């Protein structure tokens, strides 16, 4: 299995990818130039392919990038910039260096309180430790960087933040969680996933307060498809009466809760506060209108895809 790259090695890989400069943390053989650079408060050698003036110019550029060159703004402004992906891995590495953070596997959380964002921010910061960090991205959302702990998944941490925030402050929030990245230098990708989960859960009006980006991989893929092709997919599915369901809040809401309850009749009945017979009647009606028995997994998948297509097309102007 491929070993995990350190933040330093990940940064050198970024330099190779973005600039074409062959630079490594250890000798690769052949004609090379060894350069002593400052990195995170200490000095170390790096190795560039080639010798002479060209290698010397490349060494100066890399030394500048590794030096933690000053960025404008406070620590929180710099963190916000890193989370937005401004400056790529280079800026993330400089942030690590400047603030002498212990690097490691981490993930991002996007938290949108329904009120009193300042109180929410204070509570979130009390829940953090070590190199964890939080910053208000704007007047409505908070970004959290959490370094992974053994046994706690990003989703579990999101649930903890959401529950403790409500219990301690009375503030409710929508929470999106991103995937774990091997190093802080990849945190922008995780934050993009977390914010995307929040955005898509709002667009689809999904129930629940904590959402993982994994839930929306299919939605994300479909959202990047041109509208004309989405309409073709919707037509190819050929689900008759689908619009009758989507236009009926009671039936569409019942279907969504049933799918979110893993097709479990008892859990759905409890969640909707209705008798099982009432639930069965609604599911039977959905089958009559669409031809899909969503109590069966293949039909449930088809219905879910049709729901996503309908909502995506509605956001772009409706289904013809």
**Biggest β-sheet: count, sense, barrel?**
5 strands, mixed
Distance between the termini: 50 Å
- For the record, what CATH class of the largest domain applies? Alpha Beta
Rg (C-alpha, Å):
25 Å
Examine the secondary-structure arrangement and name the CATH architecture of the largest domain: 2-Layer Sandwich
Number of strands: 8
**Coarse shape:** elongated
Structure annotation, total helices: 14
Note the beta-strand portion.
5-15%
Indicate how many domains the architecture comprises.
3
CATH topology of the largest domain: Alpha-Beta Plaits
Note the topology:
Blueprint: H1 7-19, E1 23-24, E2 32-39, E3 42-49, H2 53-66, H3 75-83, H4 88-98, E4 106-113, H5 117-126, E5 133-136, E6 142-147, H6 154-169, E7 173-177, H7 187-204, E8 210-212, H8 217-223, H9 227-237, H10 242-246, H11 249-260, H12 265-272, H13 276-290, H14 297-315
Parallel strand pairs: 7-8
Antiparallel strand pairs: 1-3, 2-3, 4-6, 4-7, 5-6
Helix pairs in contact: 1-4, 3-4, 5-6, 9-14, 11-12
Structure description:
- The longest helix has 19 residues, at 297-315.
- The chain folds into three domains: 7-66, no CATH class; 75-219, 2-Layer Sandwich (Alpha-Beta Plaits); 225-315, Arc Repressor Mutant, subunit A, CATH 1.10.10.
- It is built from 14 helices and eight strands.
- The strands form two sheets. Strands 5-6-4-7-8 form a five-stranded mixed β-sheet, with helices on both faces.
- It is elongated.
- Helix content is 52%, strand content 14%.
- 31% of the residues are buried.
- The chain has 320 residues and is of the alpha+beta class.
- Helix 11 (249-260) packs across helix 12 (265-272).
- Strand 2 and strand 3 form a beta hairpin.
